[in-house]
What we know:
Layout: E1 2-6, E2 12-15, E3 19-23, E4 38-45, E5 51-62, H1 64-67, E6 76-83, E7 92-99, E8 102-109, E9 117-120, E10 125-130, E11 141-143, E12 146-154, H2 161-168, E13 187-196, E14 207-215
Antiparallel strand pairs: 1-9, 1-14, 2-14, 3-4, 4-5, 5-13, 6-7, 6-14, 7-8, 8-10, 11-12, 12-13
Amino acid sequence: MKKSKMILGLSLVAISGLVLIAADHIDAPSVTGNAADITDMYAFQGQDTNNLVFAVNTQGLLSPGATGAATFSENVMIEVNIDNTGDNVEDLVIQAIRKGDKMYFFGPYAPSVKGTSSTIDVSKASGSVAISKYGATATVATENGMKFFAGPRDDPFFFDLGQFQAILGNTATAFNNPGTDTFAETNVLAVVIEVPKSKLGTADAINVWSETKKKQ
C-alpha cells in the first residue's frame, strides 16, 4: 500500500451524461504550472456505448516549445473519483501514477481511505501504458477490458478569455460567434481511461470528480 496526500487547490466535479466537462486553467500558486495542476476533466460515453471514458488534463498552457520537456511527476497521483450512490462520497476510484516511462493504473475499486488522503492498493492494478512522446503517434494500451493513454495532447478546451474579460468590464454584452480560442496552440498532459460501464456499478447516473495527490 502506498500513501498519498491531496495537494489543496483543485477538485473538479461533473455528473455523468453523454459529455460533461469541468475546467480551470489557473489555480492556486502551490499547483499552478506543475504536475499537480488539473486544467480539465471530461466524462463521456465511448465509441463503444458499453464504455465510459474519463479524461483528466494537467499542466495547461504549454507552448509547443515547452511541451516536449513537460513530464508527469512520479510523486503525483491522478485520481478519478466516482460516486454511484448520490451522496457525493467516492464509492470507486481509478488511480494513475507514473513510474519511469510508463503510467500505471489501478481500479476502479472501492477505496479503503476516502476524502483528502488516499492509498493505492497495488493488488487492484488494471494496466499500464507507455507515456506517449510529443509529436509521436499516440500509444494506447488495452488490458482487462480497459483502454489507457497518457501523454501530451492539444488543449481541447475552447474559451474566449478576452471577450469574457470585456463582458466583466462592461465593454461588451455577449460572446462573439465565432469567438477567439485563448488556448489555441497550447497543449496539456492528458490521462485517458476507457472503462466498461459494468465496472462502475448499476446506477443510472454517477458523480465524477478528479484530484491530484502528492506522495508523502
